[in-house]
Structure to design on (550 residues):
């Protein structure tokens, strides 16, 4: 008998209630200008003289001698001058990399690493940074992609030096920042630093306003940092700044760009911390091009490759689910070289259950947020590490082919597009290099079955069946035809599935359309209207509560 709509073929009838048990040279490439120079000074001229050959032996001898001299000159040029010339040209080329925000890999994918703020706030010092760096290696975190170690606020003295530089705090960072970044780099990691677009940082240490060029050089060239998190506190008065938020963050964008131009190094990764107040997802990606658009020639900047979208995260489910809700409306903004930053992870800090922690990590990863560990690594539990090191989840975040975030296809508890910080969108999907990924979130305080029709996702083909891989149990979960049901998803839990096309669905699968809305036979007879209600001038899908009659 042909299977019916809604049938799920499950190899393992997975109950999602069992996660708690889980532990765990002239050579190719010579610059054109160089070849021209070689011809002008050497062989080209000698050949021209050959063509005007005169039968006077002495003159011929002179010419031969001249030819030899010129040839020798050319050869010695090649041997002694060329390498330097070539190097200059190469340097110019490298410097060129800093010019084009898309000619390097900085910030192409969401960056992964460690940030000191959530675990330590202002209580940081060089011993802690050394330990953290070593633990990132020892615990295998670097191996799965966490390669930035970022200092947040409170690493400096309260005042700049007499010459105007920020000074590393003499008590907490006595060996200085260059030694620190040398240590970090020595372990194969990159290093990040923090500053602020205003007069002060949020903890009232020196900000970079009016010192952007100086500070960018200090951070990147003198201290050796590769990333700059740039905050939003202590905004100068209007009559001084005479800029909006875009202008305020453009100043450091220009500084990083100009520094990269002068040093030939790739730009520092520019990580904006604007808390989503003035919609950075609309403008942060374009920061480097804005003056050109405004007709201001000569000024260019780097794009911000990542921008915070919300206020600070708390180690509580309510905070995680609220951030998820707010980001559900702007998930479209993330793509290569520009990402919604949902804030530092709270995984491992004690305020979230295991299920909530997995939901938090999955959502951040699938929504292409930077993944920044924010817990005390020395005491991280096996469970915490098993979450942070789930390579099947990380692979979606770091997909080299698809840069976009998952997006919701159904809200679930609430009507679609409802803004609700407790019950945000529950049903999400997105493309990956290996298939379509789904994320189901149970926002209820009790276990729930969660079902979806496959073609509710735009990435699924009608009339096909799909193999299902569970990215948390790391098992195959049968083949789905038309729909999939996850049973007993724990309270605040997540289901993460990767669906791969497994060929045509069985012949004769009924009904004729997986999605009935406006599906017709050749005569125009409609199949739909179940589950919809009039709304404005059209229809909207009924909520699950309405369908259940509750
Ligand atoms: C906040 C920022 C936090 C942390 C803190 C440091 O503005 O959102 O992530 O950097 O400043 O004072």
């Amino acid at each position: 008998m042909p299977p019916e709509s809604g049938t799920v073929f499950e190899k393992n009838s997975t109950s999602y209630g069992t996660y708690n048990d889980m532990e765990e040279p002239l050579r190719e490439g010579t610059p054109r200008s160089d070849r021209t120079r070689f011809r002008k000074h050497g062989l080209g001229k000698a050949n021209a003289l050959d063509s005007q050959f005169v039968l006077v032996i002495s003159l011929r001898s002179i010419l031969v001698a001249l030819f030899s001299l010129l040839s020798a000159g050319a050869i010695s040029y090649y041997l002694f001058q060329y390498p330097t010339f070539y190097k200059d040209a190469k340097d110019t080329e490298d410097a060129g990399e800093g010019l084009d925000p898309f000619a390097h890999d900085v910030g192409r994918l969401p960056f992964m690493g460690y940030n000191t703020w959530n675990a330590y706030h202002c209580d940081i010092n060089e011993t802690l940074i050394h330990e953290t760096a070593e633990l990132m290696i020892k615990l295998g975190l670097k191996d799965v992609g966490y390669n930035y170690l970022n200092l947040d606020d409170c690493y400096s003295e309260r005042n700049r030096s007499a010459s105007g530089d920020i000074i590393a705090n003499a008590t907490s960072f006595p060996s200085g920042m260059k030694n620190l970044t040398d240590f970090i780099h020595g372990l194969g990691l990159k290093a990040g630093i923090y500053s602020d677009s205003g007069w002060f940082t949020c903890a009232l240490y020196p900000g970079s306003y009016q010192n952007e060029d100086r500070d960018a050089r200090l951070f990147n060239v003198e201290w050796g940092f590769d990333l700059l998190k740039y905050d939003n506190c202590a905004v100068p008065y209007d009559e001084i700044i005479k800029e909006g938020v875009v202008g305020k963050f453009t100043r450091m964008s220009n500084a990083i760009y100009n520094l990269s131009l002068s040093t030939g190094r790739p730009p520092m990764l520019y990580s904006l911390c604007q808390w989503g107040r003035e919609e950075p997802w609309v403008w942060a990606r374009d920061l480097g091009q804005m003056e050109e658009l405004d007709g201001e020639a000569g000024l260019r900047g780097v794009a911000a490759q990542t921008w915070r979208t919300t206020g600070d995260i708390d180690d509580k489910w309510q905070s995680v689910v609220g951030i998820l809700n707010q980001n559900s409306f702007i998930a479209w903004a993330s793509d290569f070289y520009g990402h919604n930053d949902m804030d530092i992870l709270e995984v491992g800090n004690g305020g979230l259950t295991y299920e909530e922690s997995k939901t938090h990590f999955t959502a951040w990863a699938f929504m292409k947020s930077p993944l920044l560990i924010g817990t005390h690594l020395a005491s991280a539990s096996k469970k915490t590490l098993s979450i942070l090191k789930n390579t099947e989840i990380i692979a979606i975040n770091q997909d080299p082919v698809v840069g976009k975030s998952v997006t919701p296809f159904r809200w679930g508890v609430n009507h679609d597009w409802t803004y609700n910080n407790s019950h945000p969108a529950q049903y999400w999907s997105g493309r990956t290099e290996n298939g379509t990924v789904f994320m189901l979130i149970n926002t209820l305080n009790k276990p729930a079955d969660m079902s979806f029709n496959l073609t509710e996702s735009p990435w699924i083909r009608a009339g096909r069946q799909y193999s299902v891989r569970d990215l948390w149990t790391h098992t195959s979960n049968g083949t789905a035809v038309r729909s999939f049901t996850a049973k007993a998803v724990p309270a605040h839990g997540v289901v993460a599935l990767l669906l791969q096309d497994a060929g045509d669905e069985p012949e004769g699968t009924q009904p004729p359309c997986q999605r009935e809305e406006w599906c017709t036979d050749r005569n125009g007879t409609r199949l739909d209207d179940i589950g919809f209600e009039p709304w404005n001038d059209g229809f909207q899908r009924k909520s699950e509560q309405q369908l259940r009659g509750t």
About this structure: The longest strand covers residues 494-504. The two ends are 35 Å apart (CA to CA). The pocket of beta-D-galactopyranose is lined by residues 117, 152-153, 201-203, 231, 233, 273, 312 (CB under 6 Å).
